[in-house]
Amino acid sequence: MSEYTAEVLWQRNEEDFLGNRYSRRHLLRFDGGIEVPGSSSPHVVPLPMSDANAVDPEEAFIASLSACHMLWFLSLAAKQRFCVDRYEDKATGRMEKNAEGRMAMTVVTLRPDVVFSGPLRPTREDIDHLHHAAHDACFIANSVRTDVRCEPVYPA
Predict the structure, then answer these.
(1) What's the pLDDT band for 76 if we cut at 50, 70, 90?
(2) pTM above threshold 0.90
(3) Looking at domain 57-150, which of 3.30.300.20, 2.40.50.140, 3.10.180.10, 3.40.50.720 is its CATH number?
(4) Is 14 left (phi over 0), alpha (psi -120 to 50) or beta?
């Protein structure tokens, strides 16, 4: 068993909390020492009560799924002796009512674009297998009800 931590810090700073006129800007602090500005999404809480330049929970959720998938993909590719030079994912998420009528991130679509080098290059079938295995191994994908889809960009 492993345990992980994250700190979230928000302060009112004399704003009108009871009138619902307070900033949703906060600080996300991680165990390695990095601090990231956080906020509600401007799609959920209008500006100026949100900060469009900060990371919102929806973006963090998508990034977490994408990063977990990537890390497993890289590990599995290395074991198969496929040399990865670059991995870029322009992941998206769709927020809508789920089957229970609650707002939820119902679909996250990963769109990894991977560049390989070296004498051993994966076939399209190899790439599909790597992505499927990465999805099956991803701790985050295994923890959510969201439909996580992978639509890789294949080398030309």
Answers:
(1) very high
(2) yes
(3) 3.30.300.20
(4) left
